[in-house]
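R.M. (postdoc): so does anyone remember the format we settled on? I'll just put the structure tokens first.
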């Protein structure tokens, strides 16, 4: 791992700089008010390629410290304002102060130039970190799950189907402002089959506003798909091909048409991934009598995944007061896994060896539709109605063929598992927004979600040729859940120095689970209040301080509550936990920002933290069972640092560092344990503008030793390389990417029980080193329209206060 850290640090060493100057300026509205978060770009005159980019500060100012003396195009854009484009000359050694730029409200087109600009890979905003996926060379040909696993502060555990953000579990995933409530294992399979080619950005929201669901103690990961901003008819197509341990390839196509009052889009993506993983697990225990027991298992898993995605949407603006929009999304994901391996169980001098051969097929069909209508009956008053309908069908068939050998005897065991899980979701929301005065924005709304879920499992058991229906693994469940919510909130900008964001959300949850087995039914009925507060003080033109507090909840997922057994081998299994309680987290945050850099101190306390897949041991049957459990508490303190570094005019370094200290106590063991763990998470991304259309990227991430409850994960990381060439004449872009070059992004964990004495280890080698070649090309009209007809997802993002 020391070589991995060295490779991260080397690209950040100082270089000899050429003669450079400083460029500064301000952006304002027509009334003289500063315009924050405007996109400011310096473009080459020759081909309008990006030289440097930034975002205006809260006081409207922008600054570039190292700009080579030359002629440039200065481009400034902001949603809702006419775009600004002007030729400038930066003198040698003297610098340039650009006269104040005034952006006028209204729509405008830049027909004179096609802006070939780019955003920074990471953007730190007031309540979230934004990963601009399309600006990453190494994201070419990747799945959304793979991009997530390389994002700042995100830890993806494919072995146990869970995602953590900034060291906290209980993360919810939202796609185009629709919160996903399907089981995490199914969602992660969908994200693994979802091509990153159609994703614009991923928002890592650590402090969601009150108009978003309170679900997810760890925060919300918001995946925003691409929307064309060009006027007229245009599109993009792309092809990818490469290899992991086996072949990987894909294709994507998007089409869009935008008029002054009407827009329509359609997109399709296909992703084929074939890889061979290695899973090793073991345990070792010693009884009071001194009898030693040990178990070891090695399994190769060949996984083939094929995914089809299709999305079509339409938007119509009737006048300046009303609009309607809708989209339909269809996803089909087919997974096939073949496993082959063996186990060895030793108890004293006795030894049992087992050969394992199994095949699993998992098919997921997902259809979702959305419609919204917004209208503005009076000035300063806006209403919006949203409705979403989501259906999902999960079919899973597993066949296990085991042969056990002990002493001079042998035993053949074969069993099949079939599961069917149809799910239906209905989500309706009403939002109201009122702006009584400049700088004041009041919001209120209500939302109701209905969920209906059936899960049926059948098993057939065959021992030495004698077959029967297995009742232990069979079962069924019917789940209904209704979440009703209402919220009120507001933003207040007190001059240029002080900003307030305050909100209060009420949620009532009703969950009924009818179990078709002996474990009984589950009925939950509870309500909670979730306050949130964020105050920001601008200390001077470059420095601001923010103080925040928020409360959130993590409800047990349906997969956690429904007790469904998943066998890994004859001595290891995963199970549900019908006794799980929801967890409540209170978080306090203090953040200091200087220009585009920030440092934050965060402290949280979680009651009944849900820790995924906590191990327990049955010494009588030599059986290890992993199931979700409530911790008595989880206390966490973290320090987060994020900053862009402009090392040279053609060298940009994005960095994110987080230090965490966590303490917890278990609540499910005969002898509960307390522990504390310190960990570090580092993300670096270097972008080099090499000229002549060439760009290179060197980046990676490192996660030190950390814990999920009792599970202790060993350090992991990845090194990623990429290079791209923009072909002249707008003939497209070629990208070559190598991700996880050192094959170090694996899931390696273990746990030690004090009583009974037991050591367990699970190593999941993902073998994610990927070589990928990608070609993409836009076509059609490329006239930039500064005010675009908004699709449903874009309007939803405005509801989330995304700048």
């Amino acid at each position: 791992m020391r070589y991995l850290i060295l490779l991260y640090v080397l690209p950040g060493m100082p270089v000899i700089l050429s003669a450079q100057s400083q460029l500064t300026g301000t952006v304002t509205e027509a009334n003289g008010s500063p315009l924050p978060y405007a996109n400011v770009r310096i473009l080459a005159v020759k081909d309008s390629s990006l030289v440097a980019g930034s975002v205006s500060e809260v006081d409207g100012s922008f600054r570039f410290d190292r700009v080579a003396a030359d002629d440039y195009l200065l481009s400034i854009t902001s949603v809702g304002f006419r775009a600004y484009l002007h030729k400038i000359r930066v003198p040698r050694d003297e610098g340039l102060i650009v006269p104040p730029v005034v952006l006028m409200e209204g729509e405008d087109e830049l027909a004179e130039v096609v802006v070939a600009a780019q955003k920074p890979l990471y953007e730190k905003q007031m309540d979230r970190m934004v990963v601009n996926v399309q600006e990453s060379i190494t994201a070419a040909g990747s799945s959304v799950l793979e991009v997530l696993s390389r994002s700042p502060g995100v830890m993806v555990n494919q072995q146990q189907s869970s995602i953590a953000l900034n060291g906290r579990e209980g993360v919810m995933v939202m796609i185009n402002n629709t919160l996903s409530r399907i089981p995490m294992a199914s969602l992660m399979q969908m994200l693994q089959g979802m091509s990153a080619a159609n994703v614009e950005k991923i928002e890592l929201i650590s402090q969601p506003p009150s108009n978003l669901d309170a679900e997810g103690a760890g925060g919300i990961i918001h995946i925003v798909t691409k929307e064309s901003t060009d006027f007229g008819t245009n599109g993009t197509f792309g092809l990818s091909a490469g290899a992991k341990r086996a072949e990987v390839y894909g294709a994507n196509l998007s089409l869009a048409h935008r008029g002054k009052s009407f827009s329509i889009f359609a997109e399709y993506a296909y992703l084929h991934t074939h890889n061979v993983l290695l899973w090793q697990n073991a345990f070792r225990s010693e009884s009071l009598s001194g009898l030693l027991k040990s178990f070891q298992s090695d399994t190769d898993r060949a996984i083939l995944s094929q995914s089809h995605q299709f999305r079509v949407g339409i938007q119509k603006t009737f006048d300046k007061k009303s609009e309607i929009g809708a989209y339909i999304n269809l996803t089909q994901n087919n997974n096939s896994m073949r496993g082959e391996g063996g186990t060895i169980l030793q108890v004293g001098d006795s030894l049992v060896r087992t050969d394992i051969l199994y095949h699993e097929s998992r098919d997921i069909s997902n259809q979702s539709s959305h419609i919204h209508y917004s209208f503005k009956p009076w000035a300063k008053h806006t209403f919006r109605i949203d409705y979403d309908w989501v259906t999902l069908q999960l079919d899973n068939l597993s066949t296990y063929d085991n042969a056990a050998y002990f002493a001079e005897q042998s035993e053949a065991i074969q069993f099949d598992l079939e599961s069917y899980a149809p799910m239906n979701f209905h989500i309706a929301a009403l939002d109201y927004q009122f702006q009584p005065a400049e700088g004041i924005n009041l919001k209120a709304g209500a939302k109701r979600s209905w969920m209906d879920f059936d899960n049926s499992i059948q098993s057939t058991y065959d021992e030495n040729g004698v077959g029967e229906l297995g009742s232990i693994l069979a079962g069924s469940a019917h789940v209904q859940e209704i979440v009703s919510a209402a919220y009120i909130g507001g933003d207040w900008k007190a001059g240029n120095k002080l900003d307030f964001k305050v909100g209060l959300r009420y949620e009532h949850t009703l969950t009924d689970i009818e179990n078709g087995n002996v474990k009984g039914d589950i009925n939950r009925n509870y309500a909670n209040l979730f306050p949130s507060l964020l105050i920001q003080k601008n200390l001077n033109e470059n420095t601001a301080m923010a103080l925040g507090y928020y409360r959130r909840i993590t409800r047990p997922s349906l997969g956690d509550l429904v007790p469904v057994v998943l066998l890994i081998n004859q001595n290891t299994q995963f199970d549900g936990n019908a006794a799980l309680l929801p967890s409540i987290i209170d978080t306090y945050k203090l953040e200091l920002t200087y220009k585009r850099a920030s440092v934050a101190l965060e402290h949280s306390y979680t009651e009944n933290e849900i820790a995924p897949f906590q191990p327990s041991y049955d010494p009588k049957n030599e059986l290890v069972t992993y199931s979700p459990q409530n911790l008595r508490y989880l206390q966490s303190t973290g320090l987060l640092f994020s900053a862009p570094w402009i090392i040279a005019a053609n060298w940009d370094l994005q960095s994110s560092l987080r230090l965490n200290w966590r303490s917890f106590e278990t609540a499910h063991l005969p002898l509960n344990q307390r522990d504390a763990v310190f960990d570090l998470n580092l993300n670096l991304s270097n972008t080099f503008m090499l000229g002549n259309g060439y760009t290179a990227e060197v980046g990676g991430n490192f996660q030190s030793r950390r814990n999920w409850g009792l599970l202790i994960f060993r350090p992991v990381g990845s090194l990623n390389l990429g290079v791209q060439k923009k072909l002249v004449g707008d003939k497209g872009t070629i990208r070559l990417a190598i991700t996880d070059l050192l094959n170090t992004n694996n899931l390696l964990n273990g746990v030690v029980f004090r009583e009974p004495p037991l050591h367990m280890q699970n190593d999941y080698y993902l073998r994610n080193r990927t070589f990928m070649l990608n070609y993409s090309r836009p076509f059609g009209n490329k006239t930039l329209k500064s005010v675009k007809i908004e699709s449903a997802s874009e309007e939803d993002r405005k509801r989330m206060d995304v700048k």
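R.M.: ...and that's the designed sequence above, right after the tokens. Also worth knowing: The first helix runs from residue 2 to 9. The chain is about 5% helix and 65% strand.
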